[in-house]
Amino acid sequence: MTTTAPTDLPIAPEVTDPSLYLEGIPEERFAEMRATPGLMWHPYEEGGFWAVTRHADVKEVSRNSQIFSSAIGHTNLWDSEADALEARRSLIDTDAPDHTRLRRLIAKSFTPKNVRVWEGTVRSITAELLDEFIASGGGDWVEKVAAPLPIRVILTMLGVPIEDADYLVELSNYLVEGTGDQQSIPPDAFGNTTELRLLPFNSPASHALFEYGEKLAELRRAEPQDDLVTTLVEAAGEEGNRLSPSEFRNLFHLLVFAGNETTRTAISHGAMALADHPDQWGQIRSALATDDGALVDSAVEELLRWSTPVLHMRRTTSEATQLAGTSIEAGQKVVMFYCSANRDEAVFENPFTFDITRDAADQFAFGGGGHHLCLGAFLARLELAILLEEMASRNMRLTRTSEPKRARSNFVHGVLSVDLDVEIDAEIDADVDGGGS
Amino acid sequence: MVKLTVDADACIGGGQCEMLEEATFVLDEETMISAVAGTGELPRERAEIVIDRCPGRAISIVEPT
Q1: CA–CA separation, A206 and A185 (whole Å)
Q2: Do residue B56 and residue A371 have CB atoms under 8 angstroms apart?
Q3: Distance (Å, whole) CA B59 – CA B25
Q4: How many CB atoms lie within 10 A of CB A148?
Q5: Where would I find the H helices in A136-227?
């Protein structure tokens, strides 16, 4: 990795300190970067990276994977030794042709058409959680709805028994810690003996997740089922060994973590936004009552833009190039801030206003397009749309009774807890003033 | 109208093209590779949207020779 810091270029304000995010995204710092011509250099550890904050530039980096590689280095901010890179390499940290092979293996389960097969499952999981939330008189929305909903869905798809959902949520919470700078569990937690640097997010919880995936794979090898783990296991056994043991482990890890943490974040921020904007929640309820699918679709895109569950991804240049008029050397880190692209004034008018009627189809919550576009994008959209439908059919109205407790992470826009009250009211208040943004 | 083609090596099986323009693209569920269907033609404006949304950057316009 090239570590020489350019001397004559503007230095970016600090946006990597995980403790900053306890107060929310440092929006003013990103706004300053967006307004500065060219790219800013952000010092990080012994080196640094180019901070990409504008929508158009994130789009360009996302769609040019030959120059902006995911496989040289990896997609997290920090550097890793070669053995650590290999041990932790998932679909996210590959380029074509490895990426194409891995992606096609699991793509079938996530096409728009095939995701719809899960509609009934998503709906019954959502209904059960909402009914429990109402029966218990509200409370911590994250614990009661946002966390269990997506993990139950992805575990059902993978073929994991639902009894294990709580254990996997626990592992996932430790993984989020691993993206910050403080871990609350010791390196040998869960019987881990692997060096942490060889584990995703440097977390012993990754060891536990790998182990869990391998046990499940063994069960499915013995007795195939109609689920995603069976698909992966069968691919691994095919001629030419299409999926190595390490690829299986990391793919399982990725599906559990990404299928869970990201949607959970969208559901957390989404519910807060709807609670804070009762007028817009009223509009969604009216739209659902009159079968206005277009408004519901646009509301889902705005919820995604608003929540931006993954804050950034890194690329590393395979050759010298230019971006936004700035010269980048080969082997330098380039970090795309999706949270900033989703607040880019050049694309979204009044970007800090939550507005379900805006055209937010160009939001980058699933990345900026290109090969690494979120595999689960349609599943996430389905989960959000069904959540809106099921909340509306129950005449739910949420109000916020606490500030969110946010994750100490510069990588995920996580909410650890937020208390919401729930009222059941058949009357729709579409004209209430939502109180601005 | 413009005529479109899919680069089979670049397609990652995302299914976006089939979802956006189901008369013009079909995703083979065995190979997870898309191909053009029917005439493979779309109005230029629609074609540009599909090209932009394709995650594999696999769709392009066949320029008339």
Answers
A1: 12
A2: yes
A3: 10
A4: 21
A5: 141, 148-158, 165-179, 204-222
pTM of the predicted structure, to 2 decimals: 0.93
Counted residue by residue, chain B has a size of 65
Question: A157-195 b/e with 16+ CB inside 10 Å = b?
Answer: bbbbeeeebeebbebbbbbbbbbbeebeeeeeebebeee
Tokens of A375: 């595999």
CATH class belonging to B2-62? alpha beta
Residues in chain B with CB shorter than 8 Å from the CB of A111 are: 13-15, 18-19, 27
Using a 10 angstrom Cβ sphere, with 0-12 exposed, 13-18 middle and 19 or more buried, the burial of residue A395 is middle
Kindly list the distances between the CA atom of residue A323 and the CA atoms of A21, A56, A334, A362, B40, in Å, as whole numbers in the listed order.
27, 10, 10, 20, 34
Query: Comparing C-alpha atoms, which of A401, A372, A388 is closest to residue A59?
Result: A372
Can you give A103-118 as a three-state secondary structure string? HHHHHHHHCHHHHHHH
Boundaries of every domain in chain B: 2-62
**Alpha-carbon span A144 to A271, nearest angstrom:** 12
pLDDT digits (tens, 9 = 90+) for A219-263: 999 999 999 999 888 877 666 557 888 889 999 999 998 888 899
Each residue's pLDDT tens digit, A265-290: 999 999 999 999 999 999 999 999 99
Token output for A142: 């994250």
The ipTM, to two decimals, is 0.86
CB atoms within 10 A of CB A238: 10
Structure tokens given for A156: 């059902």
Q: Do A369 and B52 touch (CB under 8 A)?
A: yes
B52 and chain A in contact, CB less than 8 A:
yes
Distance between CA A357 and CA A287 in Å, rounded?
11
Given a contact cutoff of 8 angstroms between Cβ atoms, the answer to whether A62 and A367 are in contact is: yes
Nearest CB among A104, A369, A371 relative to B32 is that of A104
Instruction: List, in order of start, the domains of chain A with CATH numbers.
Output: 18-424 (1.10.630.10)
